[in-house]
Amino acid sequence: MKAAPEAQRRLLDLQAVDTALNQLAHRRKTLPELTEIDASAREISALEDERVRAQVAVDDLDRDINRLEKDIDQVRTRKEKDQKRLDAGGALREIEGLQHELATLNRRQGELEDAELELMEQRESAEQTLNEVKKRIAGAVEKRTAAEARRDEALADIAKEQEFKAGSRAPLAADLPDDLVKLYDKIREDTGLGAALFRAGRCGGCRIELYGADLARVKGAPADEVVRCEECRRIMVRTAESGL
Q: pTM for this structure?
């Protein structure tokens, strides 16, 4: 393929723009905030599981405490009835039976109240654990929100720069021969780099240094000949820096 030396040199400008666009696309995908957001999401998910378990523990204790409170209320109600009967008087045997039952109910009430107190202490500890988990969740959510804000700001900056670079690419490509741009784009799509400067006997694409016949081929090629690297197939652009 033939192309004016100046057109070949301008391929380097086009490649510089495309390289910048590739770097911006890579930066978009590899923002550190994305990793931080993913880590925060996993942390929040794990903490939510922990919160559910802590909430279940509190709820179970609440249920057991409520059950004990009902049992205590039943004992108190029974005691009030027995006390009223005892106060009303009656046969000695009946009075002795009521006194015995009241003593039993008092012991039962004491046992239930002790059990309730123990459960309430356990609930206090379980609620503290739950509140600590909720606090950690709030901190993780705050951290994720801050990372998302930084991500959005970075993406907006990248989008602006991409728009600027893409806008400068169109006139560059339009000012070059169509067949040269097509060849360049095909190579770039296949390898990521369509054209590179040939300097000091070395291909700027694959960094291979040419010797002997390969170097002679490049040196002997007409200035308007589009020379490609035998190794990486990229266009080697020759300029005054090439040292030929």
A: 0.73
Q: Cα(127)–Cα(71) distance, rounded to whole angstroms?
A: 24
How many Cβ atoms from other residues are within 10 Å of residue 236's Cβ? 25
95 confidence band (pLDDT: 50, 70, 90): confident
Q: Does 18 share its domain with 64?
A: no
State pLDDT tens for residues 57-66: 999 999 999 9
Q: CATH number of the domain that 45 lies in?
A: 1.10.287.1490
Are 214 and 194 a contacting pair, CB within 8 Å? Answer: no
Residue 172 domain flag: no
Structural domain that includes position 121:
31-160
Sheet holding 235-238, edge to edge: 202-203, 195-199, 235-238, 227-228
| Residue 238 resides in a domain | yes
**Percentage of residues of the chain with pLDDT beyond 90:** 86
Residues 98 and 219 occupy one common structural domain: no
Q: Which two tokens stand for residue 26?
A: 């890579």
Domain end, chosen from 108, 126, 160, is at 160
Is 128 inside a domain boundary?
yes
Are 12 and 191 in contact, with CB atoms under 8 Å apart?
A: no
- C-alpha triplet 129, 130, 132: angle, nearest 5°: 65
